[in-house]
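So, could you explain the following?
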Amino acid sequence: MSSLSRELVFLILQFLDEEKFKETVHKLEQESGFFFNMRYFEDLVTAGEWDEVEKYLSGYTKVDDNRYSMKIFFEIRKQKYLEALDRRDRAKAADILVKDLKVFSTFNEELFKEITQLLTLENFRENEQLSKYGDTKSARGIMLVELKKLIEANPLFRDKLQFPTLKNSRLRTLINQSLNWQHQLCKNPRANPDIKTLFVDHTCGHPNGARAPSPVTNPLMNAAVPKAGGFPPLGAHGPFQPTPTPLPTPLGWMANPSPVPHPVASAGPMGLGVPNNAAALLKRPRTPPNNSAAMDYQTADSEHVLKRSRPFGISDDVNTLPVNILPVAYNNQSHGQSSYSSDDLPRNVVMNLNQGSAVRSLDFHPVQQILLLVGTNMGDVMVWELVSRERIAVKNFKVWDTGACTMALQTSLAADYTASINRVMWSPDGNLCGVAYSKSIVHIYAYSGGNDLRNHLEIEAHTGSVNDLAFSYPNKLCIITCGEDRLIKVWDVVTGAKLYTFEGHEAPVYSVCPHHKENIQFIFSTATDGKIKAWLYDNMGSRVDYDAPGHSSTTMAYSADGSRLFSCGTNKEGESFLVEWNESEGAVKRTYHGLGKRSVGVVQFDTTKNRFLASGDDFMVKFWDMDNVSLLTTIDADGGLPASPCIRFNKEGALLAVSTSENGIKILANADGIRLLRPFDTSRVASAAVVKPPIIGSFPAGSAAVGATIGDRTALVPAMVGINADNRSLVDVKPRVDEAMEKSKVWKLTEINEASQCHSLRLPDSISAMRVSRLIYTNSGLAILALASNAVHKLWKWQRNDRNLSGKATASVVPQLWQPSSGILMTNDLSDTNPEDAVSCFALSKNDSYVMSASGGKISLFNMMTFKTMTTFMAPPPAATFLAFHPQDNNIIAIGMEDSSIQIYNVRVDEVKTKLKGHQKRITGLAFSNALNVLVSSGADAQLCVWSMDGWEKLLCKHLQIPSGRAVALADTRVQFHQDQTHLLAVHETQIAIYEAPKLECLKQWLSQERGPITHATYSCDSQSIYASFEDGSVSVLTASNLRLRCRINPSAYLSPNPSLRVYPLVIAAHPSEPTQFALGLTDGGVYVLEPLESEGQWGTAPAENAAGTSTASVVTGSEQPQR
């Protein structure tokens, strides 16, 4: 089949789906074999429609095509067999065994025999490998996960799992284009042709008089087509200014045309002669002149593009300024750009940031220009401090008040509690930031400097995706949102009250661009069908209605001085358009050349210095001079960019952030930007200074005396507009003593001393209590496993109920100390030594099915469902002291030994693959980095070693930096990798340190002083916090990025007073999905779960960068490298 025929099948599939021919759609998918509909397949498997499952698969693969296909069919038929056994339908099970499963006996006869033996068991769960088999629904869900992995890995499904990105109703659009072409070829075309059939070519009858051709607008084929005719003028101070000559009103498309010309010369200064009636400023326009063939017959863009971020335009702080600070623009003016050259562009890659998930939106702080706000496809919001290369604040997607949401949103969240980010943006003063999610929600955070990013407002703004947002200031600070529901809304950022709703778009609204001229505030909006509208802050409807070039999904942005308007967009054919608009005529003034002909996604763009435009396109960043349509230059940023990267300039254009294809961000800089990023540059100190923010909602008055640097945007560090309208540049101001004192008040260590200040729960225990040696949450977060010094394991499980809908571990609900019906305990093999002296260790498999454990004797493998011992191996000496599963193979474990060796052991074949030697003392910690392909080990003598996972050769060894005068005996040194798989947490009784692997460069070190030795520490699940326990019973919460102490939980907050008994935590474990929850294992055998109060939502408030002196923790700055 030819390529075009194949594409025609996709168009037919889209048409059938839009017309709800569901069975026919899937029949064509299966018969053509072009597209494998994973969602449909999931529905069939979940419903247990096994015959339909295999029938659908038959269109793509057969049992014996390859090993992936064989495994797919085996898993399906095995599940069908087990379900028959579970129903006690042995006849059906035997039939499945003979007809469906016997085919696999030729490949694995032993496996077939084992499956056959299940028929002889009263309950197949008696088989140890099936002991964890739950109910039918959960078993299908587990199998489905495995099937999806097999399908994605199967080469026969390559290029068949992704439906091509098409416009809505693409087949209809093509037919409309054909009809329009046929109509234009008519000798006597009618103005409104009546088309009744598609079976024959269209022709018009002979009218009484010939008329000009007009596009076909037959409602049968409901697609957007361009309108003919003129574009009426807007008011003198609207987004588009009028020409001095009146324009005709052709074909009656213009409502309420002005009967007289507006006598305003377009060559005069912008914004003179304000009319009395602001509502009359904007009138219904004409479609822009059809001066480009590329604008013909383009139609609605698809919602597929809504998932992409749009970091376009300039900082909205210009919207808040009085008009007299903006340069007055004349038509023959060059905008004062001669002071810049292409050398001013940020071209040099100065750093790479590992984001961890795909970047969707970027925005630099308008004042502290080394702060970068980032939104990702996983719903994560974070603030990067670029000088130190640290993530200083992180917020994961979480609905703050589910009960306040509509039932539709609650249902959507119950089905899929994930959301991506479409837009992040700082407010003009940088005290707030807004986040638009793909699921109805807008979050507004208050930012006070450092890592103090606090929840401020949650708004259920739209039905479906919120596609864009922007801050504006019509008469008070507002936030504008637009969405999939075709609406634009304006909200009060203080109260969250809805102020305006604008209706009129006929497709999802893609972007918004607020602006003002003189005292007239207005909003541009663009939709996915290529329509652009403009609105005043009233309820009178849109004042502009015209088409974007190419009917593309478009973003609009003004130059920094507000005098020039640009837009950039991409249609579904991949054609991109970057243009400047003539505001006096509402038409395209110039179209810039150089964008790719087949762009992937929507091309992003930004403006800087009133001189340059930039876009992310063709795996690179492209630059134009605003006054020249030809491409100025391109850079590939050393490679690694996606097809259409997100880009964003900082306010002064000295830095440029660009997203990468590896879920990262590259920062590019010019000479000024490089100076800005120097760790101790005075300009950086000034730009990052903590300024006490105004009360939320306050805003500089329009009459404030603001320095011209804001309009010109030429100074490296901007003028700061304070509450008192002080316009001094921060670079020129030396901090006074009272300012320094004010900064020290920004943050105060949170001390928790009473039980009422947090949630704590001691887990119930009916088994004799012995010192807790090891503690871990299950990977699902539903249970906690502890290993006591007497070699006995204890497992607490939380039940799903009305008080705990998720069934996850919580301090609010008491769990059950779980034991199987047999009553047996998981007890490790004990050596001849005293159990209290033995070193305990364990490791949990990824699926929580098995735990490998040792307490000085043999290593035991336990089934977590039955508590049965599956096997034991490796009798001492030497004894195992630490265990870790290989990240890529659960059958491989790394075993740290008492004799300082590390054994790489294969459980399946019961064989030691290799033995690693390099330590001098017993192994106390092991941590794998899948990203770096290394194993890091730690010994009791505080030595760290790095091993390659390829050949297991030793790469590096280094000792922790023990402070002088604090020599200690042998002690446990633990290691744990950050989420980024690069930064390594090292924990010793004297310190907590952060290293960068694989070179083990010490980045930061935090010393224990007044609290005594550190007993244990761990990262929170999001790696943003570190929980550390001490011998005095206290727990400290540190910010992971800078090791600054932000909260201390004293033992009086969770322990009952008992002067005769010294109790303290020995081990600490972090919940795998709740960043603020952790558990403690105590010397008296108790296990506690701790969480902050709901009203707080976190453990304390992090200190600002320059408020660290208020912390009682000691930061050993002498050991720090220059901040990264």
